[in-house]
Amino acid sequence: MAEEKEKAAKVSKVADPVKATIDMATQEMIVRSQKMGIETIFDRAESMKPCNIGLQGTCCKNCAMGPCRLPLPKGGIEGEDTRKGLCGATANTIAARNFLRMIAAGAAAHSDHGRTVAEVFLAAARKETDDYKIKDTVKLVAVAEAMGIATKVEVDGETKDRDLDEVALELAELALGEWGKMEGTLINLKRAPQPTYERWEKLGVLPRNIDREIVDIMHRTHMGVDQDYRNLMLQGARASLADGWGGSMIATDLQDIMFGSPTPLQSEANLGIMKEDHVNIIVHGHEPVLSEMIVAASQSKEMLDYAKEKGAKGIQLGGICCTANEILQRHGVPPAGTFLQQELAIITGACEAMVVDVQCVFQNLANVAKCFHTKLITTHPMAKMEQDNVIHIQFDEHHAMEDAKRIVKMAIDNFTNRGADVMIPRHKATQIAGFGVESIQYQLGGTFRGDYYTLNDNIINGRIRGIAGVVGCNNARTRHNEAHITIVKELIKNDVIVLTTGCNGIACAMEGLLTPEAASVYCGPGLAEVCETVGIPPVLHLGSCVDNSRILLAATEVVKAGGLGTELKDLPAAGSAPEWMSEKAISIGQYFVSSGVYTIFGATFPTTGAPVFEKHLFEDMLKMYGGRWDYEADPILHARKMIAHIDAKRKELGIDKARERVLMDMADRQKLDAV
Ligand code: BF8
User: What's the pTM value of the predicted model, to 2 decimals?
Assistant: First the structure.
């Protein structure tokens, strides 16, 4: 094991824990990793700096004559921009092609996740598996109707509910068809406000099918094909819409139908959720089809008894990344941390098994696991690791529970192999999570008013200044969680309610922002009053990154409720990814922009070397879609830009002056009559 630690510690420089993260648990674990000589991402970020030309988006390696590197000259471009690659590709073409390939990869990741869910849903609808069932029949009917499936039948002149098994089967086949259908455009696009749909139609960006738009990008960005950044970006919009209103939306809808739609629940967050006297299993990745089974297996009497037999008090399940968010939202399983904390969960010395599927999984986990007793288990056929200590248990929906029990049993058997050197940081925070389109409607509108009226009313009267969607990753090039927390606190201080997903949701939970009590501590008076009256946190956790589709639909509900314009572009709303790093974030950002949302990124922006192309994203898109890209690394300025946008929209809507409702007496009425 000493030899393994030596291998794991190859860094020439180590990180300063306080500069690396604002989170105490993470700081403590970085110190521990360094004392043990185990390298983490925080150290690697010190020893390896990023390539400046790649950062600017102007390195082309799409053919073997390159890479052609076109850095922005110091002091910028004066006069004509004469930079060219060997084939003559300009900086704009190169940056646009690179940007598009990020959209393709992001849309592919989300949408392939959606396809897996649709396949499992089809197996459940065909009754080929006993492990997956339709849990939420109300949502089944709602989604089927939204996608144009009849849920009623005429029998002998009477209208009756259609058999739900039949509806589920039709929905499964229709949904799965969205990936490769030969004609038409994606069905869910019609769930957007009508003028937005018409705008997409006019621009010619309605996606034809999900797979085709991704393949189209790979063709169009091949050497010598599309050489106009404006035309390239039309395809960027098309593919991103195929993600947000296609693959991601289908993933969220079908997951809710199979596993249950989230409702508000209490949980905790951070590494302190792990327990010294329990078998600790960490699930990490994105697809909830297996983790749903692991939750059920780890709560089964059979497994709990077995854990006790082995000397443990129970089984503590925790999550990292979006798998964490999926099982948090539906079962209250606590996240052990964000993207940057994955190695640290193993370094506690108390992780019996880490079970990973796809996306955001560090290959270095295998090197860290070698230093401990932790079993690192890959489960997805497309995501294996080359290191020999990694176990692959391929998950199959037809015997899902069997696979899950095998994994949980392996973790329990490993409990007795745990070493004496265990350190679980004490830090954790309470959170209320489990929000969604339906639960926001219920929390804010109740059964009395089944719509977003209360939210709109409070936006119009100025108690709530606007809505922000703050989402996305951590990025090891910035201080862990600092921008997430600073931006969200600045927004809620200014009465902007925040909808969160992904690692931002976990970061906010770790900071204690996902509690109703946070309202009186951090919010402006208007938002605090609403949160206290209704009993909700000022930051509402809507789930994983594919669940950003919930934000699209929640915003659409706000439009439908009235009084705030006719499209998402009219709303006093803004989107942000403060610490993004993933290609998925670019796809999400583009579908928000294409849907009419002002979207600002922090950390870095991948087009700074191509100012003309960047202007297309930052300015021209506003005229085309009503939304646009923006970039600001400073968290306070970043939040202020969002607030300025929200204020501009309030002004356009004529709600920039607070209009408190007052009870009128007879004298007031007489004054009104006299006007
Ligand atoms: O999909 S926020 S680091 S975990 S990519 Fe990854 Fe980014 Fe976290 Fe989830 Ni989303």
Answer: 0.95
